[in-house]
Amino acid sequence: MPVFNAHVPAGKFTKEQKAALADAFVLALHDALNAPEDDQFVVINEHSEDNLFIHPTFPNMNRTDKRMIVTVDVSTTRTLEEKRKLTELVTKYAVEKVGIGQDDIALLIYALPMENMSFGGGKIMTDDAEAMAKRMR
Q1: Which residues form the signal peptide (predicted)?
Q2: Whose CA is closest to 88, among 66, 110, 109, 63?
Q3: pLDDT tens-digit readout, 42-64
C-alpha cells in the first residue's frame, strides 16, 4: 500500500494533468514493485507560490515552474534496487504523461514497517496477512 503525496504549485496543472500524474505514480509502482494496478493511494496537494519553495537549480538541476516535491511511503520490505527502479519510473512516466521536465520531481521515499499500515477495516497489515495476500493477487 504505497501512498504518494505530491506537493505541486497551484494553478499549474489541469485536472487531466493531475489525473495523469496520479496514473504515472501508479504505473511506476506496478512496473517497479509489482504492485497491483488498482493499488492507488495518491494525494495531490496544490500550494500557492508563497507556500511552496523549491530552488530552481540546486544542485545542478534545471527545474521549471512546475517543479514539485513527491513523497511515497512504502514498506520496509522494499529493496534498494526496487527503490532505484521506482525513482527512475516515477520520473520517466511523469515526464511522458504530464510533460514536465525530468528535474521537476524531487522524490523522497519513506520506508515504514508493515505494522504501521492499514488498508482499512480497523486492522493493521501484519494482523490481516490473509486478507492482504488476497488483495495483493
Answers
A1: none
A2: 109
A3: 999 999 999 999 999 999 999 99
Which CATH number goes with the domain that contains 132?
Answer: 3.30.429.10
Strand partners, 45: 7
Total number of domains constituting the chain? 1
Q: Give the structural domain span for 76.
A: 3-136
In the block, cell 505541486 appears at 8
* Cβ neighbours of 105 (radius 10 Å): 22
Residue 56, φ and ψ in degrees, nearest 5: -70, -20
Contacts from 43-48 at CB under 8 Å and sequence distance 24+? Answer: 43/3, 43/4, 43/5, 43/6, 44/6, 44/8, 44/18, 45/5, 45/6, 45/7, 45/8, 46/8, 46/9, 46/10, 46/11, 46/13, 47/7, 47/8, 47/9, 47/10, 48/9, 48/10
pTM (whole model) above 0.90: no
For 13-51, the pLDDT digits (tens) are: 999 999 999 999 999 999 999 998 888 999 999 999 999
